[in-house]
Hints:
Blueprint (H helix, E strand, L loop, with lengths): L7 E7 L4 H34 L1 H12 L6 H20 L4 H14 L6 H20 L15 E3 L8 E3 L2 E4 L2 E3 L8 H6 L4 E11 L2 E11 L12 E6 L3 E6 L2 E6 L8 H18 L21 H35 L3 E5 L3 H5 L20 H7 L1 H13 L6 E3 L1 H4 L4 E2 L4 E2 L8 E4 L2 E4 H10 L9 H24 L14
Parallel strand pairs: 8-11, 11-12
Antiparallel strand pairs: 1-7, 2-6, 3-4, 4-5, 6-7, 8-9, 9-10, 13-14, 15-16
Helix pairs in contact: 1-5, 2-3, 4-5, 7-8, 8-11, 13-14
Amino acid sequence: xxxxxxxxxxxxxxxxxxxxxxxxxxxxxxxxxxxxxxxxxxxxxxxxxxxxxxxxxxxxxxxxxxxxxxxxxxxxxxxxxxxxxxxxxxxxxxxxxxxxxxxxxxxxxxxxxxxxxxxxxxxxxxxxxxxxxxxxxxxxxxxxxxxxxxxxxxxxxxxxxxxxxxxxxxxxxxxxxxxxxxxxxxxxxxxxxxxxxxxxxxxxxxxxxxxxxxxxxxxxxxxxxxxxxxxxxxxxxxxxxxxxxxxxxxxxxxxxxxxxxxxxxxxxxxxxxxxxxxxxxxxxxxxxxxxxxxxxxxxxxxxxxxxxxxxxxxxxxxxxxxxxxxxxxxxxxxxxxxxxxxxxxxxxxxxxxxxxxxxxxxxxxxxxxxxxxxxxxxxxxxxxxxxxxxxxxxxxxxxxxxxxxxxxxxxxxxxxxxxxxxxxxxxxxxxxxxxxxxxxxxxxxxxxxxxxxxxxxxxxxxxxxxxxxxxxxxxxxxxxxxxxxxxxxxxx
Length: 492
């Protein structure tokens, strides 16, 4: 019988750690790192062995040949072959519960450091990567880097990593988290049942600071209620446009973030110089890394610089997240919670262009697309924040069919789509000049279903849209907003 899933939210509390506590936690993270990579090594060997299995290769070839065929016989054969592939996969130990059994042997070696539930969670993480390789677009199960292992978690609050008597308790380790008795949100949140706990570490200056993240049952305390009402949301790689009956918004995502590219590049060059100075035998005369197993020496300066780089990135990521949380609350509290938007494939937008083109001067055109902009503004993260907040009130974001709806090309006056240049951020609708992103948000607000716009609503509310657009653009001009994608210069 499956467990029923209840809503949950998290609360992070800073741990008041002593030097001894930090050493213990560092040791446990290191043991978890070893256990993870030993399991990854085992998994990669099992995957390679399975791929060499003639029986598996034959069944997989036949299964893929039936893909896309909907007749009853093909469906039946595909189901039979799917069961056969599953049997072969289990023969090589490639399932989540087989991973749990395998890692339990490792856990017995380190029973003083890692409990059985935390070990099972480590195995589940590796299984998620393996699952992506087996059934999705994953290509390889990658080894965990110690520097990128930022959290460990349990499965329940009854054993292993747990929160009891107002303290973190884990294998004889007891640490008091910091509480703010005057924080109403924190006080109310702690009245909820703790499902399980997670220990996170964050780069702060030259060292890690540890936090206890409680996964609590229920919905988080609300400071302000969410409004009911339709909202159209047009997503960009660096900006968002919003329209509702209560107003419209055109803004850059996370404008408070710092431009850290130069600082990051400077620290990365410093790391490279230090790495080459302390490991000269690991490089060929032409400066490339030798293709063999190597031992890397890291100086104290290298480690300090590395922590500075992590701290810089963490602070910037935290600023972006906080800004997007505030913006999501603004939409839900001031505009509405019935949000309609287009489905964006941000993963595809990150990829470099495949086609090689040349400029008028004969030079090769850059294949770069939107990777840097997506990294700076994290629009996918913003959408996930909206989805999470809507789940608390049993709602979700409504998506239209991007290819059929075509919000950026539709004209409600003529009732048809008209293509226009991406570089142009405005267009004429009837006798009125509209900002393309805001107008797209307006059309999404007026969506009849996944593929069509309600033209009657468009005609009725278009004057209101023009009024809100005028106010919005005037406000942006007062702020001297220079974001080129807004096309403010077209509006005088």
